[in-house]
Specification:
Layout: E1 7-11, H1 18-23, H2 27-37, E2 43-47, H3 58-61, E3 65-67, H4 75-85, H5 87-90, E4 95-98, H6 104-114, E5 118-122, H7 126-134, H8 138-153, E6 156-159, H9 162-172, E7 179-181, E8 203-207, H10 216-223, E9 230-234, H11 240-250, E10 253-258, H12 265-270, E11 274-277, H13 286-293, E12 298-301, E13 317-319, H14 323-334, H15 337-355, H16 357-373
Parallel strand pairs: 1-2, 1-4, 2-3, 4-5, 5-6, 6-7, 8-9, 8-11, 9-10, 11-12, 12-13
Helix pairs in contact: 2-16, 4-6, 7-8, 10-11, 10-14, 13-15
Length: about 375
């Protein structure tokens, strides 16, 4: 069975329209796999909570159809009514897929209404991440219930790591055969070593959100102890101003760029001697595998989501998520050019082998074939 007659309907997260992806610089990265798969499918439609402004991205999406919120509804209300409002196209769909767990109920309701299989994708575990950031409470319990509902009602679940698979089998009693592990991808043609760019001495690069779970205050405190080291932090988030003040108070040379287009990141990574991800927890971080594809010498904290990507002293360095741990790892790499070179080459080879866009697209297409075969 092939997929040339398959119409895939992608449901974006509840409050993350295409315009949000564009604002934080990841639109082209997020749609890359769908553009790659499009020639092998009968059609792709994207359901987004954004309004008419979403149509400005039509050229960038090519012949991927945009189903937008033309009624101006709030994201919460739209997530409940979209299955009815877009019924004419949804009825013609073949497979419904969620981009993440937040808002997965929209696809599940639509699948129930029109008798379509639902593939729930989770790049991270929504309830567990929320709990780590905001601790326990009624909202956390409600999110956990929604997550459990999504796992139970999905025909197939896509997770990005084996660790996530083990977790939901144990804690949500999800059958193993219902789960497929497909990691995040990287465009290894875009994210590549650039020998023409000379790394700046002492420059350390971070890409991601500026929020507590990323542990950036600890990173800044560690860099403050390393003479001649500088930080470039690429991204936005609620901690932005607090982190800027901390860097200034600690005398850290830190550049906060805000969000940058994904296409500009390879140059920023190649200009740096080290790429670092100091998080307290991760799902399957795309920024890390993009840096590895650039042949960067990478440092990551020894936590879930990072330690299953970085093989310590083979493709990068792992360290404790503490000031002393980060300081030691950074100083080691900054003073050992041979180690940086060896780790960077191994990281590039690993990223190409495990996470190339072409390979991941083929795996996802194979999954759709299997879903249709089992109908």
């Amino acid at each position: 069975m092939n997929t040339t007659n398959t119409h895939l309907i992608l449901f974006l997260s509840r409050a993350t329209p295409l315009s949000r992806w564009d604002k934080i610089g990841i639109l082209d990265r997020e749609i890359a796999i769908y553009k790659k798969m499009r020639p092998h499918l009968g059609g792709i439609s994207v359901v987004t909570s954004g309004g008419e402004e979403e149509l400005r991205y039509q050229n960038r999406l090519g012949d991927i159809n945009i189903l937008y919120n033309r009624w101006g509804l709030s994201p919460n209300l739209y997530s409940l009514l979209a299955p009815f409002l877009h019924r004419k196209i949804l009825k013609k769909g073949s497979i419904f897929k969620t981009n993440q767990l937040d808002g997965a109920w929209t696809a599940i309701i639509a699948g129930w209404l029109y008798g379509k299989p639902v593939v729930v994708r989770a790049g991270y575990l929504w309830a567990e991440n929320f709990s780590k950031q905001y601790h326990q409470g009624m909202k956390n319990k409600f999110i956990r219930w929604l997550q459990q509902f999504a796992f139970k009602r999905a025909q197939t679940i896509i997770l990005t790591t084996e660790a996530m698979k083990r977790h939901i089998i144990q804690h949500y009693r999800t059958p193993s055969e219902k789960i497929t592990v497909i990691p995040n991808y990287v465009n290894t043609d875009l994210f590549r070593p650039m020998p023409e760019i000379q790394p700046e001495r002492g420059r350390i690069c971070y890409v991601g959100r500026l929020r507590p779970i990323k542990n950036l205050d600890t990173l800044i405190k560690a860099i403050a102890k390393i003479p001649d080291a500088s930080l470039v932090l690429i991204g936005t988030g609620e901690q932005g101003e607090t982190l800027k003040a901390l860097a200034q108070n600690r005398g850290v040379k830190a550049k906060f760029t805000g969000a940058l287009p994904n296409s500009t990141l390879p140059k920023e990574i190649n200009r740096s001697q080290i790429f670092i991800l100091p998080s307290l927890s991760e799902g399957h971080p795309k920024a890390l595998i993009e840096a590895m594809a650039c042949g960067a010498a990478v440092i990551g904290t020894d936590v879930n989501g990072i330690n299953n990507i970085i093989h310590h002293e083979q493709t990068g360095l792992l360290c404790p998520p503490t000031v002393a741990g980060i300081q030691s790892a950074v100083q080691r790499l900054l003073t050992d050019e041979a180690l940086r070179t060896r780790l960077g080459k191994a990281a590039r080879a690993f990223a190409k082998q495990e996470y190339s866009l072409k390979q991941i697209a083929q795996r996802e297409l194979a999954l759709y074939q299997e879903v249709q075969k089992n109908l």
